[in-house]
Amino acid sequence: MNANSDIHALRGEERAFPAFVSEPKAVSLANLRPAARGKFLFVGDEKFWVKGVAYGTFRPRPDGRLFPSDDRVGRDFARIAEAGFNTVRVYTQPGRRILDLAHANRLRVIVGLPWEQHIAFLDDVERARAIEDNVRESVRENAGHPAILCYAIGNEIPGGIVRWHGRKRIERFLERLYRAAKSEDVDALVTYVNFPTTEYLRLPFLDFCCFNVYLESRPALEAYLARLQNLAGEKPLLMAEIGLDSQRNGLDKQAESLKWQIEAAFAAGCVGATVFAWTDEWHRGGQEILDWDFGLTTRDREPKPALAVVSAVFAEAPFPASIRWPRISVVVATFNGARTVRETLEGLMRLEYPDYEVILVNDGSTDETATIAGEYDVRLISTPNMGLSNARNLGWKAATGEIVAYIDDDAWPDPHWLHYLAYRFMTGDWVGVGGPNIAPPGDGMVADCVANAPGGPVHVLVSDTEAEHIPGCNMAFRREALAAIDGFDNRYRVAGDDVDVCWRLQERGGRIGFHAAAMDWHHRRNEIGTYWRQQKGYGKAEALLEEKWPERYSPVGHLTWSGRLYGRGFALPITFGRARIYGGVWGTAGFQSLYDPAPATLLLLPLMPEWYLVIGALAVVSALGLSWPPLLYALPLMLVAFAAPVAQAALAAARARFPVPPASTLEAIQRRVITFWLHLIQPVGRLIGRLKHGLTPWRRRGIPVTADLPLQRHLWSENWKAPEQWIAELESALRSSGAIVAHGGNWDEWDLAIRGGLFGGLNVLVAVEEHGMGRQLVRFQTRLRVSLLALLALSALTVTAVLAAANLAWVPALILGLGTVALARAVAVDSRTARCQWNAATDQVRASAATKSIASTDSIGGDAGAR
C-alpha cells in the first residue's frame, strides 16, 4: 500500500487502519523538524501556526497501553486533520506507533512526558533520578520522528509542590530534564507547560514557552496574554490549553468562547493554541471524568457546535479575512547601507500584509545602495547627506499610508510584522506602536556578545501594551501625529531622534503602544571597534537630548525611565534580598507573580557612566598619597569603586544567553570574556560621548550668570489669578529661559525648585495675598539650596587639606586646597545661576502682568467713553 492509499484509508472510517504505516517516501515539509526563530515556529522556511487539539488521557487498556486501539486512533486523527487541525497534544508517551498514525495524517504531536508532579519528588534522590532516566528513555524511543512538534518535559507542577521545594530547585530540576531530553534528540524542540499559579518560574533554557490558561472573559485573557508575551521575551509563546466546559456552560457558550479565545491568542502573537479537548472521553486519576465535558466531540465522537466554529477560526488564522487593514508606508532611511540593505528589502518584499508601500530614502550614500534599491519595487528618494532625522522626515512626508512604519537598513521584518503593528493601532487610541528587535543568530561571536551587552536598541514599557519608548529600528506612527509635531527633530543626525519623537508625542497627550509579536531581526555590531564608536555616538545623542529635555535628566546627567527596559544586555544592579513571589494566603492565589527587590540607589550608581569619574578622582587622591601617606587610604576606596562595575560586568557575562551552543569549551569561555569586556567599556564610551558634547555633571543650563542682583521677593498684579496659575506661569517662564525646574509634590514644603547645577540651586515658596477688586500681591519665599554632595565634598577636602598642611605636606595641601576653592566657587556659581534664572522669570511674569493691567484699564476707559 503506497503513502496516498494509506492516507485515504485513514479517512475512511469504515475501513480498519493497518497496524503500522510506513513513512511517506516523498520529501516534504512534513518530514522537516520544526524550529523556533524569534517569536515564531518554522518548518523549513514556512511559519508554522499551531492549530491543535488535546487528545487524552484515556483509560489504560488491559495490555497497559495508554491510547485507544490503532483503529480508533487512526479514525480520530483522520477526523482531526479533516477539521483543519495540524497538531495534537498527548499527555502520555505515545510511542512510534501513534506517531506514525499522526504523521500519516500530516499531524504534528506535542509529546507529553509524564512523571509524578503532584508529590514532593525532589525529597527522594532516587525518585528524581528515575524521573530523569524515564525522560531520557521516552525521548530516545521517539527521537527523530518527523511527526514530533516538541517534547513537554512537564505539565503544571502544582504551586504547593513548587512552594515546598522552592522556586530555584524546581527551575534547576526542569533544566536537568531539558538537558536530558536534548541529549537524546538534539534537534527536537523542548518546552515545559506552565500555569498561572506558577507563572513566576524562570526557564530561559526552554526552546519556547507554553501556558495553559482558562479565562472566561476576553479582556482578561487579552491582558494576560500580553503579560505572558513579555515574560516569554524573545521566545515563541504557545497556548497549550484553552477551553470551556459545555456541561456547565452549554454547547453554544462553549462554541462562542472558543472562537474568541483562539482569535485572542493569535492576535496576541501566540504561535497558536491547543484546544482542550478532542473528545469528552477523559480518564484521570484512575477514574472516568464524567462531570466535565470539554470535548469538541462527545464520548461517542459526535461533533458539538464548537467543532465547526473552531475549524472555521483556525482556517483563517492568524487573522480573520474580514479585517480591513489600514494602508501602511514602510520607510527605510539608509546611508551607505549596501552591505545589509538588500536583506532588508528582501524581507520587506516577503511581508504578507495586503496594503503597503516601501519608501527607501538614500541619505547621500556613496556605495551601491541606490543600485540595489533599483532591483526592488520601492520608491527611491535620493538626497545629499542630511542625517537620519531629515531622511525619516522625507519618508513620512512622501508616504501615502495613514500609518508610517520605520525599519533600519540593517534589519529585516517578520512576514507578519505589519499585521501586528496595525492590529495594535486598530485596538486602541495609539499615536505610535513598536515591537521588539531581536539579534539574529549566526552573525559571529562578537555580534552574539554585543547582543548581550548594554547600549542596544531596547523598548521601555510602562505596561504590557503601552510603551514609554520604542527604538527607531522598529517603530510606527500615525502620519497625522507626525505632521502635528512637524516630524523628527533634525538636530539628531545619527541617534536620539526616536527618543525625542516619543517624548514629544507623549507631551501632547499621545499614547504609544507595543506589540510583542511585531518583531524584526536586527543585526548587532560584529566588531568591538564599531561597537565602541556606536556607544560614543549614543553618548553624543544623550547630550543632545539633555540639552533639549534637561528636566528628564538627574543633576549627575543620568536619564531615569519611568517604565521598565526589556531586552538582553542590561547591566543589572546587584541586589540584596531575594525575589518575592505573590502567592496569596497559603499559596492559593490563582495568578502568582515574581517581584524582584528594588535596588538601593547606591547600588545603581556603579551602572552610570559618571561612576568612572569617581574612580578617577579617587585615583588622583591615591596618587597624592606618595607625598602624604594618609591619602593612601583612598586607594582601597578606589579599588572598591572599580570592583563594583567589574562585579556587575562579571554577573552580566555569567547571565548572558546565546542562541547557538558553543562549539567548544574554549569558545564558551571566549564568549563570556568578550561579553564581560563589553560591559566594562560601554559606560566609558558613553561617558566620552557625553563629556565631549556637554553632558557633564558640572553642566549648567539656561541664561548665563550676570550680576549678583537681590532676589525678587514679590510682584503686584491688578488682574486676579488663582495661586496655581501664578505658579504655572512662573514655571513656564523658567523653562522658557532654559532653567531646569521641578514643581513640588504632595509632601514638599516648596512650590518650585530651580537647579543651578550639580552643587546648588534655589527653592521657592509662593503665597498670594488678596487686596480686593481683583488686586493681588504675590510673595516669594526663596531659599538657597546646597546639595548634600557638595557639603560632604567641601568638608572632606577642607579637613584633609588642613591636616596635610599641619603635617607639612605642602604639595597635597596645596592641591587639596585648590580643589576646595574650586568646589566652593562651583557652589557659588550654581547658586548665582539659580538666582539669575529666578529673577529673569519673575521679571517676565511681572511684565506680562503689567501689560495685561494696562490693557484692562484701556478697555475700561474705552467702554466708559462709549457710554
List keywords for this structure.
Spore Coat Polysaccharide Biosynthesis Protein SpsA, Chain A, alpha/beta, 867 residues, 25 helices, 4 domains, globular, TIM Barrel, disordered N terminus
CATH homologous superfamily descriptor of the largest domain: Glycosidases
- Any idea how many domains? 4
CATH topology of the largest domain: TIM Barrel
Helix content: 40-55%
What average pLDDT do the residues reach?
Answer: 88
Strand order of the largest sheet: 16-15-14-17-23-19-24-22-21-26
CATH architecture of the largest domain: Alpha-Beta Barrel
Overall number of strands: 33
Structural class: alpha/beta
Shape type: globular
- Supply Rg: 33 Å
Unreliable stretches covering 5 or more consecutive residues? 1-27, 856-867
CATH class of the largest domain: Alpha Beta
Total helical elements? 25
How much of the sequence lies in strands comes to 15-25%
Distance between the termini: 111 Å
Largest β sheet strand count, sense and barrel closure: 10 strands, mixed
